[in-house]
Backbone:
């Protein structure tokens, strides 16, 4: 089986392991290319403008994560609903879901862009950004926010393609955008007196190109994914279902990012070198997380379609295949990255303090990052069934609760970089343990009441 642009994967029949890899690999590459936008910004600024400019971007990563996670969560709701419609062979509802999701993305994108501009100044004060970094951090964020509607459109459009098993089309669009972003980064940083504004503008232009490409593909699609701008319509029942499934994931991601904002405030108190080191390491951490996320979304999409088709046994097989494959590929990635840790950090910034702290953070965060697999895979599978609120709440309480408690107690007393970083693996271990217990309960409930669940959770017509 080869993967080509627009290729559809049959999720309902045949072997699973190869199809899950074919689905997840382009998805991981797509997520990785998304991270290259920030990594490219950091690399260019690190070489042209130094650690203060890198720290300015790093200061904004958590806040940007709040906005992006909102779109990812709602887009995941759209993905589940459309995939379930396709699995149940309800083509009309699937097409109405496409139009509903696209309009939701447009409204959400412009709304968040406006809200973001209004809260930029208060956020800078909340994070206690050092004076030498504050002006650059604010400029970068304000320019970046102009691209929020395009980021929203891209994530929803990509989710629409994934609902039918096509992960190659979003990958191609983002590959083109990533190459454009690298070129524009180098070009714009020399045009703008404030280099951070240049790299932010490059990101806005590049992601807009990607969103427009996917829009063009949807308009020229000849199946259930066809989008007609002249006949836009909202199916209120499908919209409600998308929000009910998507908002817990969106809320989880947003609260998760908000907790990271408080951790960022703690990092800021340790100086510009710690800020720059964290910014670089975060880009690497997110690159590894691309693998974890790809198999989590594979679990969600495959379970959604098979659940819509009433294939309960296959849904369970999907979870275990996703778990095993995710562990394998994540372990390989983490091993390679940690082996070259010093070289990777040095590529972005060769300042001795930044290098030392960056590698130190990687040992605390990248090396044990595979623990997250249990959280994401079990949560992703439950979302595929339409059961998204409980794992989202549990993740919020587990991850965010542990981290916030740690920041205001343990870290407050020792106030060291290592003392702050160790909270990441601890929060993953605690949350993963309870997520597995939740799934065990949920599995028994689904098997016991399978027919009732199918009847109640089928897409609304």
Residues:
């Amino acid at each position: 089986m080869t993967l080509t642009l627009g290729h559809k994967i049959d999720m309902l029949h045949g072997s699973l392991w190869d199809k899950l890899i074919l689905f997840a690999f382009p998805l991981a590459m797509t997520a990785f290319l998304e991270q290259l936008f920030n990594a490219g910004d950091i690399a260019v600024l690190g070489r042209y403008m130094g650690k203060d400019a890198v720290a300015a971007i790093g200061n904004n990563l958590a806040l940007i994560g709040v906005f992006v996670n909102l779109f990812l969560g709602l887009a995941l709701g759209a993905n589940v609903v459309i995939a379930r419609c396709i699995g149940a062979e309800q083509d009309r509802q699937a097409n109405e879901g496409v139009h509903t999701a696209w309009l939701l993305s447009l409204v959400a994108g412009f709304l968040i862009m406006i809200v973001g501009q209004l809260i930029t100044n208060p956020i800078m004060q909340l994070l206690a950004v050092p004076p030498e970094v504050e002006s650059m951090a604010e400029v970068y964020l304000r320019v970046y926010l102009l691209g929020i509607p395009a980021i929203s459109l891209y994530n929803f459009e990509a989710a629409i393609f994934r609902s039918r098993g096509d992960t190659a089309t979003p990958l191609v669009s983002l590959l083109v955008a990533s190459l454009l972003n690298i070129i524009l980064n180098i070009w714009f940083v020399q045009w703008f007196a404030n280099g951070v504004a240049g790299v932010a503008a490059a990101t806005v232009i590049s992601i807009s190109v990607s969103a427009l490409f996917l829009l063009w593909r949807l308009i020229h699609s000849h199946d259930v994914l066809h989008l007609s701008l002249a006949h836009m319509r909202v199916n209120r029942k499908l919209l409600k279902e998308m929000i009910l499934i998507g908002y817990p994931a969106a809320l989880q991601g947003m609260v998760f990012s908000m907790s990271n904002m408080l951790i960022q405030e703690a990092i800021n108190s340790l100086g510009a070198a710690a800020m720059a080191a964290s910014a670089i390491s975060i880009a690497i951490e997110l690159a590894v997380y691309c693998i974890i996320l790809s198999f989590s979304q594979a679990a969600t999409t495959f379970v959604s379609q098979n659940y819509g088709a009433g294939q309960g046994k296959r849904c369970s097989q999907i979870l275990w295949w996703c778990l095993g494959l995710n562990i394998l590929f994540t372990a390989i990635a983490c091993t390679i990255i940690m082996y070259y840790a010093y070289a990777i950090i040095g590529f972005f910034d060769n300042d001795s303090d930044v290098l030392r702290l960056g590698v130190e953070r990687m040992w605390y965060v990248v090396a044990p990052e595979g623990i997250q697999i249990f959280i994401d895979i079990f949560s992703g599978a439950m979302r595929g069934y339409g059961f998204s609120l409980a794992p989202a709440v549990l993740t919020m309480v587990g991850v965010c609760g542990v981290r916030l408690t740690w920041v205001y107690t343990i870290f407050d007393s020792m106030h060291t970089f290592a003392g702050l970083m160790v909270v990441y693996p601890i929060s993953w271990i605690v949350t993963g343990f309870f997520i597995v217990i939740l799934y065990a309960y949920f599995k028994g409930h689904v098997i016991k009441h399978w027919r009732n669940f199918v009847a109640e959770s089928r897409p609304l017509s």
Summary: The two ends are 34 Å apart (CA to CA). The first helix runs from residue 17 to 48. Residues 1-5, 453-461 have pLDDT under 50 and may be disordered.
